[in-house]
Write a structure and sequence with these properties.
By secondary structure, this protein is α+β, with helices and mostly antiparallel strands. Helix content is 18%, strand content 43%. The strands form 3 sheets. A 4-stranded mixed sheet has the order 7-4-9-8, sandwiched between helices. Strands 1-2-3 form a 3-stranded antiparallel sheet, with no helix packed on it.
């Protein structure tokens, strides 16, 4: 399978978080089509793991879906910032915790059909509690959950965003089997 050839591109939106461009492309079969692409600087998600095995999630209102969701802490990468630095910064901002150990779990594209956002997921361990420092437009509450609560919360639609579901499933798969 060959790649599409970009014939032209124009930016149609430049916002605080994303830019949107429209590309004209030639498909491998010769047809010409338009592709709308949301450009995003990338993000990280962090799964804080308490010493007792519980996981720390945050509840926050998400305007785009019109309701509060239970999610892993996450945030957008700053220009030139490594994913690990972003993860440590966002963990402190959203939860107040500092991680003694930060374990890379995986990276993935959130929705590659129309966006280039790449998300890096880390598990944070050896946590030291502190004071959260959320952005001025964030209202977060911390919700520790046990590993046995993951599936029921996903099934109930309380955990409903892709980054949290992917992170929780990846973390669960990496755990040794229960005896």
């Amino acid at each position: 399978m060959s790649d599409e050839q970009v014939l032209g591109s124009r930016q149609v939106f430049d916002g605080k978080l994303i830019r949107v461009r429209v590309d004209e492309v030639r498909l491998p079969n010769g047809q010409v089509r338009r592709r709308e692409v949301a450009e995003h600087p990338g993000a990280v998600g962090i799964l804080p793991v308490l010493d007792d095995g519980r996981l720390v999630l945050v509840r926050q209102y998400r305007h785009a879906v019109g309701r509060s969701l239970l999610e892993i802490p996450a945030g957008t990468r700053e220009p030139g910032e490594s994913p690990e630095v972003t993860a440590r910064r966002e963990l402190i901002e959203e939860t107040g915790y500092r991680a003694g150990a930060l374990d890379f779990l995986l990276r993935f594209y959130v929705s590659p059909g129309w966006a280039n956002e790449e998300l890096f997921i880390y598990a944070a361990r050896e946590l030291t509690a502190g004071v959260a420092q959320p952005e001025a437009d964030e209202s977060l509450s911390l919700t520790p959950i046990g590993p046995d609560e993951i599936a029921p919360l996903i099934a109930a639609g309380q955990i409903a965003d892709s980054k949290s579901i992917v992170a929780l499933l990846a973390w669960s798969a990496a755990q040794p089997p229960a005896r």
